User: Fold this.
Amino acid sequence: NSENNTNKPSVAAVEEEPTVANGQDVQATKLLQQLNQLVQDSNSRSKGVTTVPAEIYKAVWEENMEFLRDQQIFDPEYFNFMEKFFKGFVMQRNVTYGAATSNLTTFYQLQPDDPGLKMIRLCTWFILETLSHSKVKAHFSLWTNMLKSFLVHHIPGCKWFICYLIHDSSVVRSLLLDAYDKEIRSNFAEIIVTVAKTLGPFEYGFFLDEEDLQPTVEAPPDAVLLRQCRACVPRFYDLLVGMLEEARNYWKRFNEYYWLFREFSLMGYHERRYLVSREIVGRFIDQFMGDLSPWARPNVTRIRIGDKFISPNLVNMCETVANVTRGCATAASVRRQQSPPNSLPGWDSLALFEESVKLLFNRKFFFQFIQQGCHVDSAVQILIHWGWEDATYSKMFMEVLMEAVDQANWNDLAPILGALGPFLALEDSLQRWRVEVGLNPEDGGLLDVVNYYRPKYPLFAYTCLKWLMEQVQENGLVATYVSSRKEHLDWAEAFLKEKANKTETVQPTKYTLQRQNSAMETFEQMCNLMEADTIEWETTIEDENMKLVIDRKY
Assistant:
């Protein structure tokens, strides 16, 4: 503003004429003259500058003020004071749940008389809304452990905590998905799991009971009433389920989000019953398949999970699917009135919805699931639970497994063979059939695949033979079957001997020596097998319908 500028004396004007006593005074005079010139240039340029809009000016001002306040709040001395304050409080046990209220907002806004609940509220706000935003996050887990120690002794506090997260879902999104710091995400998730484990048993009596959501004042008279859970824990998990599609945007750091479901699936029957009711198996598989999912909406492109450089961490997603399916009945278990060997408690009272079952056994999904090796143990659990005493599913699983072997490179075989081994070891009336169709020298069995690719891909053949010899040592049925088909391995001794005697052209390293020792061990196991007496095997696949049908890679 030119009027205001006339009232400001120039820098040079406030200075007395310097006495040139030495070189420093001369230098100072020059600097003052330069500064005066800069001020005059700035004043002349400011005449044409457009005024900043009031709303932008206000927003910037508030941001700067918040930054300055944070500099005072995020201070080590303040943190030390708060730590002493919380540690000095003795939490009194309170296991009174109270009435199941439909209006959680009202419960959240109540002013408590209970000192324990007041302390939990203060500690929660401090950790989630102050400490989590500080750059000084040292010992963050110690703070969250302190809050968890309060919550496990105070049911109203747990109930308030869940209401707080439901009331302000932005806190969940900010600390569970937005936060770049893994420590923040993991500790926040641990608090939620602690609350769910503590509060859940008090709500089991009405865990899935629903009631009409009270309409807002603005809602029209003929508005359709929405339903919601009366219990706090399921209602909070409904909030998490509603964030599934949004979580795709955070695929590099959504591991803790899926960990909440994984832990929930292991808490007990009531929690798995909730997950079944929300079709979590189908929803998770739909997320896994992306645009290829039968549930995907047409003409809607979804955010891709992963890229060519980084694979997403899907372990917790896979474990959740495995845990929920293990907690449900199968056609074989119902027919035989007997539980599969790896079923979870309450399996006989739960059943997956038909649409979830279709997606679980979608060939495209299961092939990707096995081939990518996202989590081998989860794949094994599903194979065992649903393949037990079930010829239809066992045949489909074996076809998918052998097709994955057929289409894999040698360095991609580990997760596939890691799932095949335990499935061949599953003890039931179909075990002999699985061993025969999985290993037979015809119709896509392992010996057939190895013989087919051996001339062109020796590393592939060696990897399969090494795994086969390990299975011979561990699985008696596999040893018997391979012994009965030794004539199809007459080339294997020379092949493995060449591999074992192969010398490295460079200086041997620990890794190359281990690799050679491993090859020698495989060679010796093959020699012992070939020298032993042949054992007869009575075929179990005379029925053409029980032969595998796989698509060859070449």
Observations:
- The chain has 28 helices and two strands.
- Residues 23-46 form the longest helix (24 residues).
- The first strand starts at residue 210 and ends at 212.
